[in-house]
Structure formats: structure tokens, C-alpha cells
Amino acid sequence: MDKMIVVEHLDKTFKKTVKQPGLKAGFKSLFKPQIETFEAVKDLNFEIPKGEIFGFIGANGAGKSTTIKMLTGILTPTSGTCLINGKNPQKNRTAYVKDIGVVFGQRTQLWWDLALQETYSVLKEIYDISDSEFHKRMAFLNEVLDLNTFIKDPVRTLSLGQRMRADIAASLLHNPKVLFLDEPTIGLDVAVKDNIRKAIKQINQEEQTTILLTTHDLNDIELLCDRIFMIDRGQEIFDGSVSQLKQRFGKMHEVRFEMTQQLEVERLDYHQHFSDLKVIKDGLQVTIQFDATKVAIPDLVKFTLSRANVKDIAVKDADIEEIIRRFFRKEIENV
């Protein structure tokens, strides 16, 4: 399988001047500044094959943005290498940018006062796209992203969801081999998020575009990503599929009981009979979160039915959000 992105021993260190409070300390720092180094990215290694949707995730400050900036050629690594489609982003800048598209959820590459179709015409000239190829690309992007309803409107009049679709189309106009998506569904409502995800999936499947996705929306990860690469404090902590993450950390389950009387809720003393579970009592509802490897669901149900009249029972597996939360909790405990 072709390797579209290859990252080897990637490091990025920043230096900053530490300023102590007070006039005397400030004057001293002018002549003898105290320099601290901060390792934002530490020895990252990964490969992304052609056509994969790669979920690059981590908490705020984990080093995601720094890594993306090195991969897109904005920052130069302190050490290590990254190759995208065989090109070095820093050394082959002009040739390299023709191979990539970039979408930042909170920024736009569109011209604010131009009509959207005029913006695409400007980008056509920048990327030196032929007339025939431009019309072909626009027809495809209109079909996938449904741009026709607002393509004649000025960019400043577009809603957030429309602007995001327009930005994705702009990043794909020159048919890049790699698409970097940074929080593409941030701030969008549920229906618009669903449409954006469908478009991303369709583009990936029909054009075999390699996509590197950073997101805090865990539904994006579960619905889109073939693989998850998780970092914390600039270092890799997990590399695998969503199913592998669930197998390793997805044993948490939840059972919710609805009782007929408040007195019955108070009578349920789970902690005296079971360990490693969390009990949440809210009115007539009792929610129990537990590790399925340590507590059996039938035992919990049997215990509850023996002490209360249960009106309703609901069982839920752990979702991806809870799994990742537990993963980070375990990593922090092991530090």
C-alpha cells in the first residue's frame, strides 16, 4: 500500500524568555535573559497510507496544532523528518502545496466581500487550473457539498455551515492528494455536521483522498476515522482503530433503572455488595456505571429486582467519549 504521509522521529522545541515580576528583575532580563525550552512534539513516528482517514486527536496543548503546522510546511521541525507524497514540506514548498488542501475550522481562505463563485475563480488562477478541469471539479463539488443554493452570495452573508462547506470545496478545487481538516465541524448544528461528514466520507471514497482529521467531536472520530492516533504532551499514547480502542478501554457499561417509589431508591446499597462502580441517583432513576470485566450485568439486575419494583431498565455500552476520557485518566495516573 502506498505511503502518503511518513513521519519519522519528529521533534519541535520552542525557546521562550522567562520574565520575572518587578522592575529590577525586568531590567536584569534585558541583559541576562533567562531562557526556557519547551518540547511541544517529542519523537513522533507514524505512516498514513493513501486513502486513509486518520484521526489525529489529543487534549488542548497536546501538540496537535504544532504537528499539523510542520506537516503543512508552516513550521520547521527541530529534528526528524516528514514526507507527504514523497515531498518535504519545508524544502519542496512550491511543489508541495499543490498536493495538499487545508481547512481550519475557525479560519477561512475565502475572500469576505466576493461572491463565492468569484472566490473560486480567483483560486482557479492561483492554482493554474485549466477551464475544463475547473468546470469538472466544480460540478463534482456542487454535487457533494450542495453549493448551488448559495454560490452567488457574498462570503460574508454565508452561515457557518455554508462557509464550512465552501471552505472544504476551496481546499479541494485543485484536487489535492492530502486533505488536512482541523475541527471541520466545530460550532455546527447536528444536521449540518451530518452533511459535512457524509461529504468528507464521499470525497474520501470516490477520490481516494488521504485525510488527516483533528477534532474534539468524538462522533467525527467514530463515524469517519479508519484509525486513531492519540498524543499527549507531544508524545504518542495510542495508535490503532476505533474498535481496538474500544476493546482495550471500552469495558465500561451503564445500566439505568427507573423505580416506582422513592423509598426503594434509598434502599439500594450497591456499594456494600459490589466494588468498582459509580451510582447516580436522580429522583426515581438510578444509573450505575461499571466495568463489565469486574461486575456482571445479570448480577446487578438480580440484586436490584430483589430490593425494588423496577418500572424500566436500559443498558448502554460505553461510547467513544467515555473511552477516551478513561484512556487519558489512566495515562495521567501512570505518569
Question: What key phrases describe this protein's structure?
Answer:
single chain, 335 residues, alpha/beta, Rossmann fold, Alpha-Beta Plaits, 2 domains, 6-stranded mixed beta sheet, 4-stranded antiparallel beta sheet, 12 helices, 13 strands, 30% strand
Walk me through the structure:
InterPro entries: AAA+_ATPase, ABC_transporter-like_ATP-bd, ABC_transporter-like_CS, ABC_transporter_ATP-binding, P-loop_NTPase. Residues 25-258 form the ABC transporter domain. Keywords: ATP-binding, Nucleotide-binding, Transport. 37% of the residues lie in helices and 30% in strands. It has helices at residues 23-31, 64-71, 93-96, 116-126, 131-145, 160-172, 190-207, 218-224, 242-249, 262-267, 297-307, 320-334, and strands spanning 3-18, 34-49, 53-57, 79-84, 100-104, 178-182, 210-214, 227-232, 235-240, 252-259, 277-282, 285-291, 310-317.
**Biggest beta sheet attributes:** 6 strands, mixed
The gross shape turns out to be globular
Q: What kind of oligomer do you see?
A: single chain
The CATH superfamily of the largest domain bears the name P-loop containing nucleotide triphosphate hydrolases
Helix content range of the residues, please? 25-40%
Extended strand count = 13
Write the layout of secondary structure elements.
Layout: E1 3-18, H1 23-31, E2 34-49, E3 53-57, H2 64-71, E4 79-84, H3 93-96, E5 100-104, H4 116-126, H5 131-145, H6 160-172, E6 178-182, H7 190-207, E7 210-214, H8 218-224, E8 227-232, E9 235-240, H9 242-249, E10 252-259, H10 262-267, E11 277-282, E12 285-291, H11 297-307, E13 310-317, H12 320-334
Parallel strand pairs: 3-7, 3-8, 5-6, 6-7
Antiparallel strand pairs: 1-2, 1-4, 8-9, 10-12, 10-13, 11-12
Helix pairs in contact: 5-6, 9-12
Protein name: ATP-binding cassette domain-containing protein
InterPro entries: AAA+_ATPase, ABC_transporter-like_ATP-bd, ABC_transporter-like_CS, ABC_transporter_ATP-binding, P-loop_NTPase
Keywords: ATP-binding, Nucleotide-binding, Transport
